[in-house]
Design goal:
The chain is mainly α. Helices cover about 50% and strands about 0% of the residues. The protein contains six helices and no strands. It is elongated.
Length: about 120
């Protein structure tokens, strides 16, 4: 049942409530999978899974977590705690080249000088 509410909610993206946002922030697939597994629900059958005792417990847990987050944060969007995705820094070729020691940096050699062919007078 909680799954059906989320599917319906995702249809109207412009109508999220704060408690729905908090539910998504405190829930997530990884947390759900871990919770279902810890509560003995290891089936891949979605009907069976989302009508299980574990689903009812998870729904209640999410309601409590979302309410707590909403109480603490009000209308501040981001949660202050919890795991964060590691920040991936994009490689900067030029900065990397400048930070290398001169011995490690590739040596650029000047192009050989080409002399003009002598002109022949007729």
């Amino acid at each position: 049942q909680w799954y059906q509410r989320r599917v319906r909610g995702s249809i109207d993206l412009d109508k999220w409530t704060w408690i729905q946002l908090r539910t998504m922030q405190t829930g997530g697939n990884t947390n759900a999978k871990a919770f279902f597994s810890a509560n003995g629900c290891n089936t891949n059958d979605s009907v069976q899974k989302y009508n299980s005792r574990a689903a009812r417990l998870y729904t209640k847990k999410l309601e409590n977590l979302a309410s707590d987050a909403q109480y603490r944060l009000g209308e501040r969007l981001h949660l202050d705690s919890g795991p964060r995705s590691p920040e991936v820094k994009e490689a900067d070729f030029f900065a990397d080249m400048l930070s290398q020691s001169p011995a490690a940096a590739p040596q650029v050699q000047a192009a050989p000088q080409v002399q003009a062919a002598p002109q022949v007078q007729a």
